[in-house]
Design brief:
- By secondary structure, the protein is an alpha/beta fold.
- 24% of the residues lie in helices and 33% in strands.
- A 6-stranded mixed β-sheet has the order 5-4-13-14-15-12.
- Helix 1 (28-39) packs parallel to helix 5.
- The longest helix has 14 residues, at 121-134.
- The relative contact order is 0.19.
- Residues 19-186 form the FAD-binding domain.
- InterPro entries: FAD-bd (IPR002938), FAD-dep_Monooxygenase_BioMet (IPR050493), FAD/NAD-bd_sf (IPR036188).
- Belongs to the paxM FAD-dependent monooxygenase family.
- GO terms for molecular function: FAD binding; monooxygenase activity.
- Keywords: FAD, Flavoprotein, Membrane, Monooxygenase, Oxidoreductase, Transmembrane, Transmembrane helix.
Length: 251
């Protein structure tokens, strides 16, 4: 039996050693930061711009390094019902020729206790939210942060929302995404997103409907990760429980 990853227990800190941490953004990065800081015994408050934390996104892969972290945070039991167990990752030419592959089961044996799994992004995010709340993390939605002010002595920072509300903390972590403002505050200059010329299309299909099609059914009955590579583009198929993710990236 493969060794289990150690589950970190939440530390208890005295008031003098506990930081008040503000995290801007409740995406995967913000939630992961919140869980890690809360487990270390700090007081954590997430500020999210959206009016509510909605279930959005498509398929997402969890590879050995990240699976180790999720287990360390005590999330394996909560995540298990939402896992899909792909057996292999195939790289296929756009004309159908097989280029290469990675056997996930064989690869897992090189990293004992870890795994390759597929999820729907919303399921992963929901489990992270629940774990953060279990650890005492506070969450405030509809809080779009416009700026951050650092105190004169550098001991604290105050984040200011677009509607004027303010929160003070010992540490501010920016996880507000590509359209967020905290990166610009850190750099001291404008840092708008750069258009790359790429587009991504994603589709979610019911696996029950796919099972009715003889050509699509094998993708559901024998979960695999498949990438079709072509000139200046690729398409990827991830099987994620009752959902199927098709992503096309065009340059």
């Amino acid at each position: 039996m493969a060794p289990r990853i150690h589950i970190k227990q939440q530390q208890t800190r005295s008031q003098s050693c506990r930081l008040d941490i503000l995290i801007v953004g409740a995406g995967l990065a913000g939630l992961g930061s919140a869980i890690s800081c809360a487990l270390a015994g700090h007081a954590v408050h997430i500020l999210e711009a959206a009016q509510e934390i909605k279930e959005v996104g498509a398929g997402i892969q969890v590879l050995p390094n990240s699976s180790r972290v999720l287990q360390h945070w005590g999330l394996e039991e909560a995540l298990t019902p939402y896992m899909t167990f792909p057996s292999v990752c195939n790289f296929i030419g756009w004309k159908g020729n097989k280029i290469s592959h990675l056997d996930f089961h064989e690869s897992e044996s090189n990293y004992p206790g870890t795994w390759y799994r597929d999820f729907h992004r919303a399921d992963l995010q929901r489990c992270l939210v629940n774990r953060a709340l279990e650890l005492g993390v506070r969450m405030t939605c509809n809080a779009r942060i416009a700026t951050v002010h650092v105190s004169d002595d550098g001991a604290t920072a105050t984040v200011v929302a677009a509607d004027g509300r303010q929160w003070e903390g010992d540490l501010v972590i920016g996880a507000d995404g590509v359209f967020g403002k905290l990166t610009e505050e850190l750099l001291g200059r404008s840092d708008p997103p750069v258009k790359t010329g790429d587009l991504a299309y994603r589709l979610l299909l019911s696996t029950e409907e796919m099972r009715k099609d003889p050509e699509l059914a094998p993708f559901v009955n024998h979960p695999q990760v498949n990438y079709w590579l072509g000139p200046d583009a690729h398409a990827g198929l991830l099987h994620s429980m009752m959902l199927f993710d098709l992503a096309n990236f065009w340059q």
